[in-house]
Amino acid sequence: MAKLYPLFVASASFFLSYYVRLSWTILSVYMPFRPTVAQEGLAFALFFVGYVIVQIPSGFISDRFSGGIVISLSLIGLAASAVMSAMSPNVFWEYISSLIMGLTAGWVYPATINVMNHYYRDKRSVYVGYYSIAWPLAIVLSGLVLPDIAIRVGWQWGYYSSAIASIIVAILAFRLKTENTGYHMDLSLIRNRNVLLLSFGGLLFFISYWSLTLYAYKYFLYIGINSVVAGFVFSSMAISGLFSTSFSGYVISRIGTKNAVLVSLVAYGFIILAFSFIRNAALLIAISLVMGFFRFIITPGNSGLSIEIGENRAGSVSGIANMFWQSSGIIGPIVSSSLIIDLGFRNLWIALALIVFLSTFVYHGIGTSFHAAAHHGDVPQK
């Protein structure tokens, strides 16, 4: 049980940082001030503005100080921002709380990646797969739980419940340790070829990922599916991911991290295309289940690539890469809301699929590890 404690807390911490940001995609529908499509996109983008700002410092700090302390402080801030969102009287207040939420949530990912690298070196790919269950679980629970909470007790409790959970996990996370590598902040890491490819490839994938996540629930309502069923369809995009993330570790150990990501990206792109042509709820559930299977092999794959490339500087590499990845949350909602307004949902899904296909070419270029690249002069040694 003691061996699983770091895994549980790291995964729960990342789950909360992800779940709270997803809450807006569901709860905004039930807010009395009824934000428009453009306002929804802006609020979502502001979260990522805050998130991106802290990625590089969070990565370096996670390499230098205790991962448990970094996680705990981040979750306490996340809880405060969730309470602020629950108290929003208008969309402008929501803009501010969303920005603060991003500034506090952004410290969790690099710190938890370092925790995983510290405690589970021997079977890292398998345990990172288990850790990554947090991604699909956040989508599943947000789609199943948040509409029911909003209808029964009020949309504010979607945020209040997240705040309570964040405080509990913050207390549990405080005792987690990571190695102090002795590295100082070194922005020359950004020049490393593999770090750049991982960053840009992930940026393209996450533009599609966040755009789909933000507007899928609204799309299901738009085509006439009732709110409860729409929530289930939304959750279906991640239900199979509960299995594929844990299974991904075994797939990666057999065919390699990069190959697993490439195969999943191609499959994921074709499935997004299907959204352009299908409006039946049952069929949407079926293709969403398949989508989730591949979608959530990609996400632990990204974490694995960060560790493989960064080695003892995994926190720094994941922080840099995640800065680019989560910049997609700024770009995606703005571009996608414009596409919906001007061209409609069908053309949005086609555009997102093309972006995913482009990302496969970028990932294909990822080669040697950070350690090997450093010996070739791409980055300075410690």
Can you give me a brief rundown of this structure?
By secondary structure, the protein is mainly α. It has 17 helices and no strands.
Structure, explained:
The protein has helices at residues 5-27, 37-53, 55-64, 67-86, 91-105, 108-119, 124-131, 134-152, 156-173, 193-222, 227-239, 241-255, 257-274, 281-310, 314-343, 345-364, 370-375. It is built from 17 helices and no strands. By secondary structure, it is mostly helical. Helices cover 80% and strands 0% of the residues. The radius of gyration is 19 Å and the shape is globular.
Q: Please report the number of helical segments.
A: 17
Unreliable runs: 368-382
How many distinct beta strands? 0
Let me know the largest β-sheet: none
Helix content: over 70%
Strand content: under 5%
- Rg over CA atoms, rounded to whole Å, is 19 Å
Kindly list the characteristics that best describe this protein.
single chain; 80% helix; 382 residues; globular; mainly alpha
Can you lay out the helices and strands and say which pair or pack?
Blueprint: H1 5-27, H2 37-53, H3 55-64, H4 67-86, H5 91-105, H6 108-119, H7 124-131, H8 134-152, H9 156-173, H10 193-222, H11 227-239, H12 241-255, H13 257-274, H14 281-310, H15 314-343, H16 345-364, H17 370-375
Helix pairs in contact: 1-4, 1-5, 1-6, 1-8, 1-9, 1-10, 2-5, 2-15, 3-6, 3-15, 4-5, 4-6, 4-9, 6-15, 7-12, 7-14, 8-11, 10-11, 10-14, 10-15, 10-16, 11-14, 12-13, 12-14, 13-14, 13-16, 14-15, 15-16
